[in-house]
Amino acid sequence: MAKRFKQQNMNYMKKHHLCLVLATTMLHAIVFTTAAQQPVTEFLVRIKNPEDAMGVADTNGTVAYFFDGHKQYQATIINANNEVERNVSLNKLPTNKKDKLIGILLNEEVFAAFFYNNKFKTLSAVTLDRTTGDYKSYSLKVLAKDEYFLRGFAMNNRFYMLTVPKHKNILNLHESANGKQTTSGSYAIEFPEFYQLLDNNNDKLNVPAETEVGIEVITGYLDNNVRASYPQKKMYHLHQNIIMTFDDATSTHLVTIDTEQKKSSYKRLNFSLEKGNLENQKNGNSFLLDKTLFRVTMSHEQMNLSIINIDSMALLNNYNFFPETGIDILNTPIVQDNESSSLFGDGDGKEINRTSRYFNKVLDGNISIAVNKIDSGRIEIEVGSYEETVYRNNGFSGPGGLSMGMGMGMGYGGMGGFGYPMYSPFGMMGGYPGYYPYNNGPATVVRKVVSFKSMFDEYNFSHIKGSIPKTIRERASEYMGERFKDGKPDLYCISYRSDASMLMGYYLKNKNQFSVVDFSRFGNPK
Question: Can you give the pTM of this predicted structure?
């Protein structure tokens, strides 16, 4: 596991050698217990060579997993007591072999998996009747010649598939409640650069774009970090709203689709600095948590953190920091992790003691901000940057971007092999997460993350001193690092059973077995 921070106060530790030995012994016992933790359930994966897997939970605690193989699908449903209720497979039609899994839906009646085929420009679904166990395939939509698929996700017991007409500021929304048919609506977007930005910088996404347009989807789950949220175009789905944010040095653009009222809206928020305010001197990025926008704007001379309610546009709080005076909201040290392409990370955890160095390093990378709820009264904010470099054949390949490679990441309720989605909320991965480029010979991927964390009151956004508890993401990272050391599972995915429980599933090909570990919000795996 990555060593996060250097040991402090060595003299104190020497004076208390016995306590240190006892504490170390206890730590090893805890790590061993965590690594030896037994899964809450295990089941056979009957299909050969699954290439993709996704998991999803309903409000009753039932969890469903879908496996996509070259010739077959498999659906497995587990009840709230972790007992397998259904475990069925279905042969693919020859025309479906190039379909890309884009998401899954679970409600009281049906379990459905949704697909996009870029060759035939089709949206389709496979459904499993939860009562009878019957499997059926449905053709949902054939896109127009100049219409591009953007993203798909589940929200409010429905699955939404978003498409965009070429060179038009229009968003088409295709909605399915059962995987059998869709209803469609079209929304004119007032933001003049809407299509242009969806078409640009698709090499700077965690999840690669399936077509000419792309945007990063940020889930409403528990944990995000600067690695996951560094793209400057992001999509959030909250309650009945789909909100897209587009960030640049001076502004955050908000595009909102209200799926109940069937209307769209556009807002632009401008940000300036007292020092280093020229556009070519600064950069910015934002993160949306519920209806609160957290925006960081930064130059070499100043960093500003603005917290804004996007409904009223009221400024809820505001912080300014300068390299010569330091950052007074730190709850953790400023740390730089240089992580290579091993799956569970080997970050060096170097502390940065000078604020000016932090400013320089952040602006040299992709500035990023992430926000998570800790509990009912506190939130954490992580501010920093992410950048990625690929070295091939002892040569330099360049920073960031998308390379032909295998995706091993964790999606919104799912994961990828070579599949979609491949967003990673895990601390040890980021950018285009966990990929291992295999073209042009051996390669090493180095990801540099520079960041610190702060804790705030979630109501008035004042700073709170104290230590920040580990997130589920960090606990799962530690568990998987101990479980697999320098290796990796053949597939893995995550799903959230509740606000306080995350399920980590991983597949081992040599056993044809899928294992599920349950991580509570606090404490060790169950």
Answer: 0.84
